[in-house]
Amino acid sequence: MLSKKVWIIVGAGVIVVLLVILFMTYFGQIREQEELNNRLTQAENRQTTLAAEEEDLENRLAQARSLVDASQVQYPQAIHSIEYGEYIFEIAEKCNLTLSSLTFPRPSAVKQGSVTYSMVSLSLPVSGALEDIFEFIDVIRTDPRFASTRVKSVNLSGGSATIAVDIYGYGR
């Protein structure tokens, strides 16, 4: 049989081993807890940043939608050749000009960024006094019915001119 001293030493050794295991487990859990707290803090910081970015992106989206809505108001949904033809003849008559001919080709698709517009290119041969031709061009540029119209070129020759215009329409 073993003596009392051996049992005390064995008992003390077992207690020391158990204490070492307990401390290692405890300190391992403390390190793991600290690591988890650090990760939680980083995640909370990231969440705050992402929430701010989300709000900024939502504001930018609202502004972009507002700009699209504003441009849609400027551009008609469709280009109706009969209406525009009547407007052009009406303006030519008010400006004391003779419009020789007017032909409306089919609209073509023009993509600008992510928006696709329909566009009709017209050639407007007019004749009359030079001042009246300039007045006609100014009316085309400033008339709200032609807000989506761009005067591309003007070819003057004596008492006549050929005015090239593009009429844009917003297509969804």
Task: Using brief descriptors, characterize the structure shown.
172 residues, Alpha-Beta Plaits
Can you describe what's shown?
Strands 1, 2, 3, 4 and 5 form a five-stranded antiparallel β-sheet that branches. The protein folds into two domains: 74 residues; 90 residues, Ribosomal protein S6/Translation elongation factor EF1B (Alpha-Beta Plaits). The radius of gyration is 40 Å and the shape is rod-shaped. By secondary structure, it is of the alpha+beta class. A hairpin with a 2-residue loop joins β2 and β3. The chain starts with a helix and ends with a strand.
The proportion of strand residues reads 15-25%
Overall spatial form: rod-shaped
Could you tell me the CATH topology label of the largest domain: Alpha-Beta Plaits
**How many beta strands in the DSSP annotation?**
5
Helix content: 55-70%
Question: Under the CATH scheme, which class of the largest domain?
Answer: Alpha Beta
Count of helical regions: 3
N to C succession of SSEs: HHEEEHEE
CATH architecture group name of the largest domain = 2-Layer Sandwich
Structural class: alpha+beta
Determine the CATH superfamily of the largest domain.
Ribosomal protein S6/Translation elongation factor EF1B
Q: Taking all residues together, what is the mean pLDDT?
A: 84
Rounded Rg: 40 Å
Gap between N and C termini, in Å? 98 Å
- Mind describing the biggest β-sheet? 5 strands, antiparallel
